[in-house]
Amino acid sequence: MENEYAIQVRGLRKDYGRVEALRGVDLDVRRGTLLALLGPNGSGKTTVVKTLSTLTRPSRGSVVVNGYDVTRRRNGVRSSIGMVSQFVALDRLHSGRENLVLLGRLQKLSKTNATRRAAQLLERFELTEAADRPVKTYSGGMKRRLDLAVSLIVTPPVLLLDEPTTGLDPRSRAVLWEAIRQLLGEGITILLTTQYLEEADRLADQIAVLNDGRIIALGTAAQLKQGVGRERVAVVLSGPEDFRRAGDLLVGPGLTRDPETRTISLAIDGPSRVKHLLDVLAEHRLAIDSLSLTKPTLDDVFFALTQRASDPPDADSMPARREPNDELGALR
Amino acid sequence: MTSQTQTGEGLARPDTRTKLYWAINDNLVLIGRHLGHLTRSPDQLFTALMLPATLLLLFRFMFGGAIDVGNTAYVNYLVPGILVIGVTMVAVSTSAAVQSDMQEGVVDRYRTIAMADSAVIVGHVVAAVVRATISLVAMVGLGIAVGFRPAGSALDWVLVAGTLLLFAFSLAWVAAALGLLARSADGASGLGLILMFSPYASSAFVQPETLPDGLRGFVEHQPVTLVVDTVRALLLGLPAGNTGWYAVIWWVVILGVAAPVATRLYHRRYA
Predict the structure, then answer these.
(1) Any chain A CB within 8 A of the CB of B8?
(2) Residue where a domain terminates, one of A224, A243, A267
(3) Dist CA B159 CA A331 (whole Å)
(4) pLDDT per residue as tens digits for the range B89-111
(5) Which domain holds residue A307?
(6) How many CB atoms lie within 10 A of CB B261?
(7) Do A198 and A321 belong together in one domain?
(8) What CATH number corresponds to the domain at position A21?
(9) Which residues in chain A are contacts of B32 at CB distance < 8 A?
(10) Does the interface ipTM go beyond 0.95?
């Protein structure tokens, strides 16, 4: 049973009536690692998590969690996983402590052990002070932390987190990230879904990009960001004519044009490339209103991924890419 | 950190107990959860008591004088009907509670751990019977305070309790099924109206003999009327004939349909 992979998904398809939520997903998650499933709303992330957690049955394909098949060995799967769904799954009238003890007792802990374990987890997730207040008085961040704590009452070998930080303030997000790192340190295997590239970047060993029910890319954060650049620069041109001319002049990876706001944005390999860009614009007497630098977003990664197949970037046409693209490696 | 300390010491004890032991454990834990709601959200129970209490006072002091029920005081006629209304109000709150559990994802959590599935609905049903019992005791007390003078023997009271508990138990399964059927809170309260109005079209307030023919036929034979008539006959020491048996058969059959339907609906949500 001790298999190298804690999660193995092969050819997973799921349709709800005529709607195809998943159209053939393959995934392998090595034990003790974190795989981030990155994708926009409606891409099928939650369906993957629901299938892994036995909440929904696969229409086709095989899904094995901790050595147990999700259709034939449901109870094996259920004993192997902890799950935090997108919607807080807590009894709002009961206190945090009572929620923990209740779930402990449903997982075959004695009352004493469940109580002791609850106290440990409340402390670990900084909830001791609020432990005996009803959950309905908790903030969003506290509820998420408690939700995660509840899924750990009996330490599972596999943890499934469905958008655990969506809608959280930065502090709560940081607390959750820290907790997730600690769990990885303890050898737990984690599958996490997210809409934020940054989150995947910080936590994941592997990132799988899910779009429209299919995995369109799989790799490390560095691999995915190749072609998107480390950063993006956006310039707002002064007038429509300048915008048009600049649009013809600039070519590059992940380039987007927005006539509405006269904004052109493209990927660069580092802030030093901004000077190149400004030089090129000045050379052609193109005036700009503003310039900004941003980190690549999920949109940029998607754009790059969907572009790459059809439109391979032309290395020479974009001024900012005239030199060989070796900076990524050098900076790492 | 070793895995022993992660899970707490001694937690990974070998599971030598039977499946049945754990099923009972899970049922008790979830029954405990719902009973905990009684003290934490007393307004839920309060709401379920308000309506029968108000109706009792309203009919006792305002409308009752205008209703002739033969050779007993109207309050004696009224209280058995109020008891039944109390039970149906509890069932309405059960529908809402089941629906909100399904909605809020609490049940998803239960579904992802290895526990007895049955406990989820059974917890709600048993808690409903407990709430119904509280309501029944309260309404008998209030009834006596406003002049209700029952004539039944101790045995009659035992039979009354048995009939009403069977009624409460079966109706709780119906309520659970409606709660599972509802797709939203509004849907649940809409379906709850069916339960709520069932005692109004019964012999709870007036004698069916006074009703127009078509309605009378329905009212005399519908299962809620059978419960009201049985309880009334027992408490007032009147001849009941076979009414009691019909009531028991009806509600056992309803239970026999509602319980498997509720269970199926629960599983259907996870196709």
Answers:
(1) yes
(2) A224
(3) 84
(4) 999 989 988 988 888 788 888 88
(5) 228-331
(6) 16
(7) no
(8) 3.40.50.300
(9) 102
(10) no
